UniProtKB/TrEMBL annotation:
The lineage of its organism: Eukaryota, Metazoa, Spiralia, Lophotrochozoa, Mollusca. This is Lipoxygenase homology domain-containing protein 1. InterPro entries: Doublecortin_dom, Doublecortin_dom_sf, Fibroblast_GF_fam, IL1/FGF, Inner_ear_hair_cell_LOXHD, PLAT/LH2_dom, PLAT/LH2_dom_sf. Residues 138-159 are annotated as: Disordered. Pfam families: DCX, FGF, PLAT. It comes from Tegillarca granosa (Malaysian cockle). Belongs to the heparin-binding growth factors family. Residues 283-399, 411-528, 769-885, 897-1011, 1054-1201, 1228-1287 form the PLAT domain. Residues 18-100, 162-238 form the Doublecortin domain.
Amino acid sequence: MDTHSNLRSSQTAPPEAKTCYFYKENDYYYKPAKVVVGSQVKSWPVLLTELSKRVPLSHGVRSVATPGGHDMISNLDGLTHDGHYVCSTNRHRVKSLNIDRVQGGRNWNFGRPPSGQRALNLLLREEAENRSLRHSNFDTYSTRTTPHRDVTDPYIGNKHPKKITVMKNGDPTERHVILLNRRTGQTFEQILSDMSEMFHFAIRKLYTMDGKRIRGCNSMFKGPDVLVCSGWEGFKKMGGLGYSQGSRAGFSRAGRPTQSRGSNDIIASRLKKRKERLTKTRGMWHVTVNTNSLKSAGTNAQVTLTIYGHRGNSGPITLGNMEGNDFDPGNKDEFNISIGNVGEIYKIRIGHDNTGDNPGWLCDEIRMKDVDTHEELVFPCHRWMARDEDDSEICREMAAVRRGEPILPVLRYEVQVITGNLWNAGTEANVYMTLYGDRGDTGVRQLYPGKRKSVFEKGNVDTFYIEAVSLGHLRRLIIGHDGTSAGQGWFLEKITVKEQGARDENLFYCGKWLDEGEDDGKIVRELKVQEEYIDDIIEKRNFEFEKWKFEKDCQIKLFSSVTEKAIRVKNGMTVDALANPDDKANVFVVVSKRAGMIRVFANVLHPNNYLAIDNSRVTLLSKPGAYTEFRVRVQDDKTVMFESVKNALQFLTFTESGKIGDTRGILDKEPIRRFHVYCKGIRDDMAQFIIEKHPEKGYVSLQSNLQRGLYIGMKPDGRIWPTVDTGVNNIWFFPEVVEYQLEQEVQDYIKDKEDTQVQQPLDSSHADGDWSIQVSSLETLENADVAIVVYGDKGNSGPIILGAPPGKSLFVAGNNDEFRANLAKVGKISKIRLELIPKSYKKLPSWKVKEVKMTDLNTKESLTFYFHRWLSREEEDLEIMREKPAKRAGEESLSLTKYKLTTITGNEQGSDTNAEVYVILYGEHGDTGRRVLIKSNKGKKFQCGQDDMFEIEAVSLGKLQKLIIGHDGTGAGEGWYLEKVIIKETEESVFQCDKWLDTSKEDRKIERTLLVKESVQIFTAEPILEEEDEQAKSVKKKEVEAVQKIQTTKEPLSVYQVEVKTGSDANANTNSNVYICIYGENGDSGKQTLSSSITSRKPVSSWCYLKLSQSDNSTNIYWYVEQYILHLIFQTDVFKLEVKDLGKIDKIVIGHDGKGADSGWYLDDVTVIKKEREDNQKYYFPCARWLDENVGDKKTEVELLPKKEEEKSRLENIPFDKRKKSYFTEEGAYKLWVKTAEDSKPANGGKVVFTLYGSKGKSEDITLFSANPTAKLFEPGNIDEFEVTVI
C-alpha cells in the first residue's frame, strides 16, 4: 500500500475539508500558517510544496509532526480538523514546540524598544538636513516661500504615497515592494520593523544602490526608488540595476509625485530583448584582456578563462600561449573564443597555472562582445593574481553587469579544515578543493598556506579564504591532495564553510583517510552538506530494495508524481510526461549500468534515443555518454529521482502540464522531479495477482486478478506456465524472508581495481563460471598476500585475493591450497598472473610457487600452469609478478616472452630521479600489470641524459597499443623528465613523452599515458622456454620434431657465410653477444646470434700486442711488425648460417646486446656470401662506426645497405683514419650546418635530434654531437658543422 496516497474508503464521497495550523520548528515568534486541506490538495507532496511557500524554511518543508515531535505525519489522512502541527526542514526528526508559548509576530528590533525621545531626536536631525538642503538651493527657490515644518509630522511636504523596492544586501533576488504613505504616520524605526517582518531577519540599516546610508523617512521619500536593507554588516556593492544612483522621485508643480512611466512595459521589453539575445547568439565572443602598465604586471604563465551561464559553463579556455608576447605590461590582448550554448552569462573566472619565471599578473579589465548580438560585457578586475601579492590567489571571479538587472555579489568564503587527531594524520602534500552550489562552482582552488609553515598537521584547525561570486546554497565540495608516496596520507575529520562575517555555517563531514595505503585508497573525496550526507545513506539503503528494476536489459516505465502519466518519446523526438499506460513509446530499457546507482536509459520504440540532460533541459541524444548517465536516487516513499551525473544537482523534471521543466530548482525534491518506476506490465491488469495465503502449510498461491481461477504454475524444468488449481503442488510457492542491508565498504588495498576476495570453498554448489584454483608452494610465503588475475577473451577478473578462513595458514612450503572463484565474466581463459601484495615496507615479500591448477567445476575443464619460480625482491630477477599462458591440447597458445624496455631521461637540469618508477604495458591480449622498474643495465638508474634498459617477462601482448608510466616521488627534487620509452620484442615500439613527471612543474602529473609513436619490425623474438613436467616435455618434443620434419620437406635451407671485420682501435673488440638479421626479397632470416667463428676462438676481436726482440736490421723489424699488425688489426670473423633462401639481399641489421664489461664495438664492414652458387655471389656492407652506448649516437644496432664489391678494394687502400670520411662521399652522406640565433639562450648541454624526410620515408633519429667532448655546441651565434649518413 502506498502510504503517501490519499486513500479513502468511498471513492464517490466528496473530500472533507480540514483546517490545519502549521508552525515553524523552534520558532516561538512565527505566526502559524492556516491551511485548508480540501479537494485542491490531491496528495501529500502537493501539500508539502504549498507549505514550503507558506512556512519560511531554508530548504523548504520536508517533514510534518505533532507538536511534541514524536509522531511524524506522512499522509493526508493523518491530519485532523483544527489540528496543530510543526514543520521542519529535516526529513527524519522534528524538534518539539510548545504551541502555548508561541507569541505570533516577532519583534525584529533586538535592541532597546522604541521611545518618544529617540523618535524626536531623529525628526530633529531630519529637519536640520532639510534646512541645509533648502539653503543650498536658495537661488532656485528664492521666489517661493517655505512654510514652517512641524517636526511632529515626518511627512509634511510628502503628501502622496511612494512605492519603493527593497532588496536584501548581497542577494538581489530577494526583494519586496513597500508603499510609504503619510496617512500611516510611521516613524523610521517602525518602517524598519515592518521590513524585518517581510525579510525575516532584523534590519538595522538602509542604503541606496551606491552605498549611501538612509537615516530617516525624509531621505526615503526624496531618495531613489530602489533601496538595500542589511543587518549590522556593511554594504555589498550591487550595481547594474538600471536606476540612476542619485535619482530622486520627481514631483509635479502640484506636489504630486511623478510615477515611473510604463514600468510594466519596461520589464516586458527587457525580457523580450533577453530572449532575442539567447536566440540569436551562437556562442562566439570577442575577448579583450587589459594588463596593467606596471613593469612587473605581465605574466608568462598559461592563462585560462572559464565562463558560466544559466545552462552550464564553457570549461577552461586557453588564452594565448606561454611562448608569445601575450599579457605583457600595458598590453591589450584580443582573442576570439567559442563558449557554446551556456545560456545568459552571469560570471567569469580568469586565472593562470603559476608556471614560468614570472607568473604573477596584474589584470585591469576583461571585455567580452558577442559577435552575433553585439552585447558587450565589462568585467573590471584591478587585482593581482600572484602567490606573493594581494591575497595569494592566482584566479579571480567577476559577476556580469547588465543595466536594469541584478548582479551577484563577490563573497569571501571562510573555510575551516579540521585534521584528525590520529597518529600521522597530517600531510605535507598540496591540498586542493572545489566548492559547488546552486550557482555553479569555484573551480579547483589550492588551499595555499602562504607564509604559514605548519598546516594540515595532526589535530590542526586551519582557516583559508576563497573569494568567488556568490554560489547560493552550498551543496557539496570535492577535496584532495597530490601526495602519493608513503607518509603523504591525510586523515580529514571535517570541513566547515561559511560566508565571512556570517553566523550560519555549512558542515561537510569526512572522517576518512585520503591515503593510497589506507581505507579505500582514495586521495580525492566528494563531501556533501551534513544533511545531504544522511540522505545519501538512506538512498543507498532504499536502492537495495528497488535495484532489481534497474538491472541491465530490464524494461521500465517512469510515471510522473504530478501528472500520474508516463514519460514518452514523441514522433518529433521530443519528450513529455503525458503517456497513457498502453502507449508503446513510454517503455525504456536499461542499456547499461555502472558501479553503484548509475544507469543509462534508451527508448524501446526508438532504440537510438537515450534520455539525457543537456544545457539544463531534458532531451534525447543519439549516443550514450556522460550526458545520458543518471544517478538513481530512491526516496522513502519509493519514488525515484534521476540526477544527471554530468550536471550535478540537475534532475529529470516535468511540470504539472506534462511539459519539460527546468532541471534546476531550490527544492530539489519537489514532486515534479519524482517518478514511480514500474517494470513493463506491472501496472497492467494482466500483471496483477491475488495472493492466497495458506499459513497452516506455509505456502502461497498466485491467482490472476483478471482471469479468476487461473494460477501461476511451474513445470519440473523450471518454466512458468498458467494452470488451474487441481490440488497438485505445482502452484505452491514457499516465500523466503530476505533481509536487505547495505554493502559494507571493502577496507583493502585493491578496492579501486574491483578486487574480489575469495576463500576456500565451504559448500558444493556450483554456479556458472565457478572454478577451483589449486596452488602448490615450494617455499613459504612471507610478508605478503597473494592475488591472481585471470585473463580471457571477454576481459579480466581483476586482482582476486586468495584469502584464508580465520586461523588457517596458507602457502606453506609443500602445501597444496585450494580456492574457488567465479570467472564467468572472463570468458575463455588465455593467461593468469600471480602477484604479491606487500603487507608492510619494513620487510621484503618472498614466495616460491610450484604450479597452479584450475578446474571448471561445471565442464571439468582443467588447466595447469607450471611456474617453479620465485616471486621475491631478493631472488632471481627481483620480480613479485609472474605470468603463464593457458595451454590446451591441439590449440595454439600465447608465448612467454621478455620485453626489453629502455627509458631515456632528458638532459634538462634536475631531470634525474630517485623515485620508484613503474610501468604498465597494454596490447591486443591484455596488460602486464603494474611492474616496478628495478633492475637496470646501469649502476644508478634514471640519471640525467641516461638510457636505462630493463627486462619485463610477460605473456605476449601482441601488438602494443599504449603504456602507463609513473613514479611515487611527490617531494621536492623527486621529479623526472622522461624523453621517451623504447620497447623491443618482435618490433621496436617508440613511445614519445618529452614531459616532466613532477608535482611542481607543467600540469603536476607524475603518471602519464603514452601511445605508440612508431613501430619498426626488427627480428623474430625467441620465446622463453618454460619448465614443464616430463609428460609435457615429451609432447612438446614430438610437436617440434613434426614441425622440423615439415620444414625440411617443404623448404630446404641455404648456407650463408658472414664475414665480420672489427676495427683497428685497441678497444674496438666487444664481449657482448652479436646478432645479425639478413633481409632479402623472400623475407628475412630472423635474429641470428654470431657465436662460433670459423677463423677465431674469440669472435669480433681486435689487434694483439707483440713482444719482439731487437735485431741488427731495425728497418726489417719495423716492416715485419707493421705487416703483422696490419694482418691482425682488421680481425675478420667468419660465420656460417643455415636459413631459408632469401633471394636477392636488400639489407642487414647487425648489433649486440650491450652485456659485458667491454660491450662497445667498432664495426668496420660485413660481407655476406651465398655458398650454394658457383659464382659465390657476395654482398658488401661498409659500416666504419662505433656500436657503443657511451660513444657517438649511443646506438648498439645499425642498419646497412649493400655496396659494390670493388668498393671494398678501394677502401682497403685508404688509411684507417681517413676511411670514415671516404664513406661520406657515398650515397646517403650529408654535411649539415646548424646556425644558432644571436638572441638564443645557451644550450647548456641540451641534446639535439635530427630527422631527415624524403620521398621514400624518413630516417631514424640522429643525435647531433661533437667529436670533441669539450666542445660547446649550439651557442648563440655559432655555426656548427656535422657529417651524417642516412640510409
